[in-house]
Structure formats: structure tokens, C-alpha cells
Specification:
Blueprint (H helix, E strand, L loop, with lengths): L3 E8 L3 H12 L4 E5 L12 E2 L1 H9 L3 H7 L8 E5 L12 E6 L6 H8 L5 E2 L2 H15 L4 E3 L1 E8 L4 E7 L5 E11 L6 H5 L3 E16 L10 E6 L9 E7 L8 E6 L9 H12 L7 E15 L3 E2 L2 E3 L5 E2 L7 H20 L9 H33 L10 H9 L3 H15 L2 H4 L2 H5 L39 E4 L2 E4 L10 E5 L4 H14 L3 E5 L7 E2 L3 H5 L7 E4 L5 E5 L6 H13 L5
Parallel strand pairs: 1-2, 1-10, 2-7, 4-12, 10-17, 21-22
Antiparallel strand pairs: 3-6, 4-5, 8-9, 9-10, 11-14, 11-15, 12-13, 13-14, 15-18, 16-17, 19-20, 19-23, 21-24, 24-25
Helix pairs in contact: 1-5, 1-8, 8-9, 9-11, 14-16
The site of flavin-adenine dinucleotide has 34 residues, from helix 1, strand 2, strand 8 and helix 8.
Length: 588
């Protein structure tokens, strides 16, 4: 049988692979996706979609479908520490601390100003079917679940892959110009000798996914509730809402705990443990699934091997703290999609794809290191805040909690001290600058010699900037009576955008010439007084960092590629050189 020829083969239909498929479809890139399982994830897994991910979903028309099922910010924007869920004892069901998290509470206003959309919460169990539906609608017949990559080889011009139909065993040969390995690191990377470096196998965690009515005891509004048990540390655990209803009426739950001596598949023992952890011996519950996973912090030594590009968990796996895993994978896909589209339409040289590793790997390293750091910090910080530690023998544990809740002046001091310690946790759950303030220092960008904006060490304060490599700052604009974000000026169809000041007409004219020369769409717009786009609330003027005759070139993924703070004698030449360098065009 003849090989099926496709420009791109995606291996893996998890969050990263399905997102890649949607983004490639929107860029008009033909592709095939193969996923070995018959269905999307049966366990909840990641559930926090940060502001950047939601912006990307908005750009690709996915935000509406996600919002239909997701928890809105007011239903999840806190994290909470409690002694237990329920119980009648003086130390039971006591609130230890609560803080704004992941865009909630006082963070909400800050995030609403920083982007056109807010973060959301939707477990992968519910997100992946949405992504699959959109992927299938945009690429009918080419999203193959129940198909696995069995073998592959790179012959220099193409990758020849053998895809096995899991139902029939039939093998089909696929010839692809590029392969995207979004396989969680299970197949392609190991076969190519990609080394995962870092800290493997930190701790084994079990997640019980179950249904139960906890409405009488559950304190709604928190994305994560940590139970710190006053009597038995082994009963400390983490409880999360998994929907489909959000808040008190939530039907499904995820409970993370360290399995200890529990048999891996002993479901009755797990059900007993859930009841024990929640302090509810008679709780009626239905256990849906158990998942066993290992917390690790590892990064691939390479993101590209020949014609294979690796993304998502295939290149970075970090502790779940700060929620950088799935978000990072979706953002890898977004970075890759427009570059592949440019290369496959001969608008860019293949070397543009090398910038994927140059841009995303340093960020992957930061995410892995940040995830490890916040993971370790979380336990140490919690114990320090409450007054626990190895110096406290088990029999004194309850008295430490009693002292914490004591109404005496000393108890008040203990809680005040704890509040300051808990506040250091903002580096985990208020890391807004890490989520949207990151920059590509090298890659498909042209540095202009300016220095990065100030950075709060805990990365909780985002400073918008148009410095090349950074994400274009969001500002609301008005054009022809319609409100739009600066982010809406780039398109999904491989389009660049040129944002000029109100006196930037020469840049806009240059953009038209350059677009024609390089056959690449550049949507040029002037923003400001008397221009076609109005700066409705003055935010754009506050963040643009160019003069009225300057211009900013923005990539399809909304990162700033280049800027000129002011006008130029020869804008077409200057802009043409910039585009040429970004695409590494051979015709310069
Ligand atoms: C408990 C938990 C909580 C988490 N919380 C968060 C969070 O809040 N936010 C966040 O961003 N991240 C979180 N994560 C991490 C997140 O779940 C992962 O980062 C994410 O699933 C990675 O997506 P992926 O598509 O790269 O890989 P995967 O989800 O692993 O998907 C890879 C797919 O490839 C398929 N595959 C493998 N080999 C082949 C082959 N040979 N042929 C065909 N298909 C193949 C697999 O079957 C799989 O479906 C959490 C993880 C866990 C375990």
C-alpha cells in the first residue's frame, strides 16, 4: 500500500497534540494526528488554564466552548488550608489560611486589565473532548484515535512512520515532512535518544477521582484545598472540585494523597482511605478511577531532532504547582504552529523551526525549576507557618495546632506570623509575571538593545512592555464602532501585525510593500488620536513605548518581533530587513 503523504504528523492526542492540530488547521496546514487510546483522558489531571492559555484559546475561537463548561474565576480564585473537611472536635474543619490565587480576589482586577480574557478552571477530562471536537471539525477524518505510532525513521527529506490501528492491527505508512511529538515523552523522544535531564521520580502520588455529595461541608471558591491533619500527617491530602457543577453543588472530586502502604489497585482500601482523610466514615461515594503519577522535574536536552519537533510533556515535566504543565504544552504548540505554516508555504526557511527550541527551551527550564522550587517550598512553608517540623514529636502535633488557634495574644501573634509566611506562597499561586510576562531573548525576534522591565523576584507583578520578544501588551481599542484587543490585530492565518503610532502612515505603507515582497500577510494599523483605531482608555499610550511615528511588528503568536521607537528615512527597507531576518529568508 502506498504511503499517505502529509505535511505534518502529530503523535499524541492529549492537550498539547489536540491544540497543535487546531492551531495548524487554523493556519491552513494539512496534517494527521494519531492517538493510541480510543478516547481522551479518563482522569481529571490538569485543571488550571492560565491567562495566556485562555488568550490563545480566544485567538482560536475555543474560549466560548471552554467557558460553557469551565469554572469562572469567582468559583475558584482562592487556595485554602484546612485541618479537615468535617468533624466535631475542636481542631476539626478549622480554616488555617486562605489566599487569593490564580487570578482570583484582588488579583482579578489586575488580570482583567492585563489581558482580554481571564483564567479559567476546567480539568483535562472535560477540556480534551472540547479540543478533540474542534480538532475533528477543523480537520475531518484526520484525527485518528485508537491509532499508534509503531515505528518511524527520518530519511532526511521526510519522516516515514508506521501507524498501527489498535482495533484491527492494520499498519499504514505515513510520510510526513515534519513530525510533532506530543506523546508525553512515551515514544518518540526515547527512540531518538532525547535525554530528560533533572530530578526524576521525586514522589509517588495517587489521585482518586470520585463522586460524592460534599455540599454540607465543602467551602466553595477554592481551586485547591489542602488538608493538614492535626493528628496524623499521613492523612494530609489535597481536594479539588472536578465539576461538572462548580461550587457547593460539585458532584465530582479529585483527591491527591501519598499512597503509603496502600495496594495500588486495592479499590476498597482506597475508598476507606478517602473516608478516613475526609473524616467521614459513612460517606457514600463512587470511585471512578485511580491514577498513580510521579512528581518529577525534567527537561529535554533537545526540542528538535531533524524533522521531529517535540512539545508538551515530551520535553518538560514538572510538579503541578503553579500549573505550568498543560499550559506550557499548549503554548509550545502555539509557538510551533505559525512557524510550521510559514516554512511549509515556503515563506520562511526551515531554520525558522530552530527558533522553537531557542525560544521555548529556556522557558521550559524556567518552568521546571519554578515547579520544583514551589513544590518544595509549599511543604516547608506550610509546616513553618503552622509551627510544625521534625522537632515536633507526633504526640505534640495536636498541641501545636491548639496553640495556632488559641485566642490568646500569643495565638494572635502565631497566626499573624503564619500569614506573613503563607504570603511567600504568592510565587506559586500569583505568578502572573511568569504566566504572561515571559520573553524570548533569542529566536525569531530582533532585539533593540533595551533592557527587560523590572522583575519582582516572586514573579507576581507583571510589567507590560513592547520590548522585542515579549508578549504584546493588551489594550482595548475601538475600530469602526467595535471593541477589540490589541491581540486581535494579529490573525491566525500566519498573519503578522504592524501597530504604528497615529503619525505612522509611512510604516503602514511600507508594510503593504513588504507583505507583497515576502507574500506574508501584515495587517497594518495606526492607533491613537485621529487614527483608524482609537485607544479607548489611554492604556495603549501608557504601554506602547514608541513615539507617534514609531511602529511595532507583532508575530502571529502575539509576541513582539521588532520595533522602531520612532520614524525612519526608509521604512520599507528597515521593515523588509526585519521580516527577512525573522523568517531567515534566503532572498535578502
Ligand atoms: C494531578 C495532575 C495535576 C496537574 N495539574 C496541572 C495544572 O493545573 N495545570 C497544568 O498546566 N498542568 C497540570 N498538570 C500537568 C498536565 O496534566 C500535563 O502537563 C499534560 O497532560 C501534558 O499534555 P501532553 O499533551 O503534553 O501529554 P499527555 O497528556 O501525556 O498526552 C500524550 C498523549 O500521547 C499519546 N501517545 C503516547 N505515545 C503514543 C504513540 N506511540 N502513538 C500515539 N499516541 C501516543 C498518549 O496516549 C497520550 O494521550 C497536572 C498533572 C497531573 C498529573
Amino acid at each position: 500500500m502506498e504511503a499517505i503523504e502529509v505535511p505534518v504528523l502529530i503523535v499524541g492526542g492529549g492537550g498539547c497534540g489536540l491544540s497543535t492540530s487546531i492551531f495548524l488547521s487554523d493556519h491552513g496546514v494539512a496534517h494527521l494526528l494519531v492517538e493510541r487510546h480510543a478516547d481522551t483522558s479518563h482522569v481529571p489531571k490538569a485543571h488550571y488554564l492560565n491567562q495566556r492559555t485562555m488568550e490563545i484559546f480566544r485567538q482560536h475561537g475555543l474560549d466560548g466552548s471552554v467557558a460553557e463548561q469551565a469554572a469562572p474565576l469567582e468559583k475558584f480564585g482562592k487556595v485554602r488550608w484546612q485541618t479537615s473537611l468535617t468533624g466535631d472536635g475542636p481542631l476539626d474543619a478549622r480554616l488555617i489560611y486562605e489566599m487569593d490565587a490564580f487570578g482570583g480576589g484582588a488579583q482579578r482586577e489586575i488580570q482583567a486589565a492585563a489581558g482580554p480574557i481571564l483564567p479559567a478552571k476546567l480539568p483535562q477530562l472535560r477540556l480534551e473532548p472540547i479540543l478533540r471536537r474542534h480538532a475533528e471539525q477543523r480537520n475531518p477524518g484526520r484525527i485518528l484515535f485508537g491509532h499508534e505510532l509503531a515505528a518511524f525513521s527520518d530519511d532526511g527529506d521526510r519522516v516515514i512512520a508506521e501507524v498501527r490501528d489498535a482495533g484491527t492491527g492494520v499498519i499504514t505508512t505515513v510520510a510526513a515532512r515534519y513530525v510533532i511529538a506530543a506523546d508525553g515523552g512515551r515514544t518518540v523522544g526515547p527512540a531518538l535518544g532525547v535525554e530528560m535531564q533533572g530530578v526524576p521520580g521525586l514522589v509517588d502520588v495517587t489521585t482518586a477521582y470520585f463522586s460524592a455529595d460534599l455540599s454540607a461541608w465543602w467551602h466553595e471558591g477554592s481551586i485547591i484545598t489542602w488538608f493538614v491533619n492535626p493528628y496524623r500527617p499521613d492523612l494530609s491530602s489535597t481536594l479539588l472540585e472536578m465539576g461538572p457543577t462548580w461550587g457547593k453543588g460539585c458532584e465530582e472530586w479529585g483527591l491527591h494523597f501519598i499512597p503509603g502502604d496502600l495496594g495500588r489497585s486495592d479499590e476498597q482500601a482506597v475508598v476507606s482511605r478517602i473516608r478516613e482523610v475526609l473524616g467521614m466514615p459513612g460517606l457514600e461515594l463512587t470511585l471512578h478511577r485511580l491514577s498513580h503519577w510521579t512528581v518529577e522535574g525534567v527537561l529535554a536536552d533537545r526540542y528538535r531532532v531533524g524533522r521531529v519537533l517535540l512539545a508538551g510533556d515530551a520535553v518538560h515535566r514538572q510538579p503541578p504547582t503553579t500549573g505550568l504543565g498543560l499550559n506550557g504544552g499548549i503554548q509550545d504548540a502555539h509557538n510551533l504552529a505559525w512557524k510550521l505554516a510559514a516554512v511549509l508555504t515556503d515563506r520562511a526557511h526551515d531554520s525558522l523551526l530552530d527558533t522553537y527550541e531557542a525560544e521555548r527551551r529556556p522557558l521550559g527550564k524556567l518552568h521546571v525549576d519554578w515547579g520544583l522550587s514551589t513544590w518544595f517550598h509549599h511543604k516547608v512553608m506550610t509546616e513553618a507557618a503552622i509551627g510544625l517540623g521534625p522537632h515536633i514529636p507526633p504526640q505534640r502535633r495536636a498541641s501545636v495546632f491548639s496553640a495556632f488557634f488559641d485566642l490568646s495574644p500569643v495565638g494572635t501573634a502565631v497566626r499573624a506570623r503564619a500569614a506573613e509566611i503563607f504570603d511567600t506562597h504568592r510565587g506559586e499561586c500569583q505568578a502572573h509575571d511568569l504566566e504572561i510576562g515571559f520573553a524570548y531573548e533569542e529566536g525569531a525576534v530582533i532585539p533593540d538593545g533595551s533592557r527587560p522591565p523590572p522583575r519582582a523576584p516572586l514573579r507576581n507583578v507583571y510589567h507590560p512592555t513592547t520590548r522585542p520578544g515579549h508578549l504584546l501588551p493588551h489594550a482595548w481599542l475601538e475600530r469602526g464602532g467595535h471593541r477589540l484587543s490589541t491581540h486581535d490585530l494579529t490573525g491566525t492565518a500566519t498573519g503578522f501585525a504592524l501597530l504604528a503610532g497615529p503619525a505612522g502612515t509611512p510604516w503602514c505603507e511600507a508594510a503593504a510593500q513588504v507583505a507583497e515582497k515576502f507574500s506574508i500577510p501584515i495587517a497594518a494599523t495606526r492607533i491613537g488620536s485621529g487614527a483608524e483605531c482609537a485607544d479607548v482608555d489611554g492604556r495603549w499610550a501608557a504601554v506602547r513605548q514608541i513615539t507617534d511615528d514609531g511602529a511595532i511588528l507583532v508575530r502571529p503568536d502575539n509576541h513582539v518581533a521588532w520595533r522602531s521607537v520612532s520614524g525612519s528615512e526608509n521604512p520599507a527597507n528597515v521593515l523588509g530587513n526585519a521580516i527577512s531576518r525573522i523568517l531567515d529568508h534566503n532572498t535578502t
